[in-house]
């Protein structure tokens, strides 16, 4: 167990910040992809209020597992920040995150959300890439809160 997995000991705070981050990241999306993503999330929020918050909390253990190897690599190389590391390894990190998303996409029970996921999945690196810096910094800030 690394210091990174200690994030699960602060699950409520980390999940809350992660949900806020996700909502802000969605709001920053633009173009046709942004319109599609915002529409799908808006519909999901209407169908299941609190879906982003509940999803952040439910998926946090899997997210931590997926990102822990990247954390260990970052710590071994003493980079500037975890956000910098994630951004520099965008393709590998996106693949790690997509493994979590793909496993859980099978369980989507919000009408239309599964279709939206399938249509946007191919654009994941474009959507996630610019957000990796912020995600890494958010998670690192919680690790350093000891």
Task: List key phrases describing it.
146 residues, mainly alpha, single chain
Give a quick account of the main beta sheet: strands, pairing sense, barrel closure: none
Order of helices and strands: HHHHHHHH
Q: Please, how many helices?
A: 8
- β-strand percent reads under 5%
How far the N terminus sits from the C terminus, by CA atoms, comes to 15 Å
Task: Give a description of the structure.
The chain has one domain. The protein is mostly helical. 19% of the residues are buried. It is globular and about 45 Å long. The protein has helices at 11-28, 31-47, 51-77, 82-88, 90-105, 113-120, 124-128, 132-143. It has 8 helices and no strands. Helix 2 packs antiparallel against helix 6 (113-120) and helix 4 runs antiparallel to helix 8 (132-143). InterPro entries: DUF6918 (IPR054211).
Summarize the structure.
The chain is 75% helix and 0% strand. It has 146 residues and is mainly alpha-helical. The chain is globular, with a radius of gyration of 15 Å.
What is the strand and helix layout of this fold?
Layout: H1 11-28, H2 31-47, H3 51-77, H4 82-88, H5 90-105, H6 113-120, H7 124-128, H8 132-143
């Amino acid at each position: 167990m690394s210091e990174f997995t200690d994030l699960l000991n602060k699950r409520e705070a980390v999940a809350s910040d992660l949900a806020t981050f996700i909502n802000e990241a969605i709001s920053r999306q633009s173009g046709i992809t942004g319109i599609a993503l915002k529409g799908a999330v808006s519909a999901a929020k209407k169908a299941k209020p609190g879906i982003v918050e509940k999803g952040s909390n439910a998926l946090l253990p899997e997210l931590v597992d997926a990102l822990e190897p990247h954390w260990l690599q970052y710590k071994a190389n003493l980079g500037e920040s975890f956000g910098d590391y994630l951004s520099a390894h965008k393709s590998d990190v996106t693949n790690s995150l997509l493994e979590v998303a793909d496993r859980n996409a099978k369980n989507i029970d919000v009408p239309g959300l599964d279709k939206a996921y399938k249509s946007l999945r191919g654009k994941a690196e474009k959507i996630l890439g610019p957000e990796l810096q912020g995600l890494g910094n958010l998670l690192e800030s919680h690790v350093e809160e000891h």
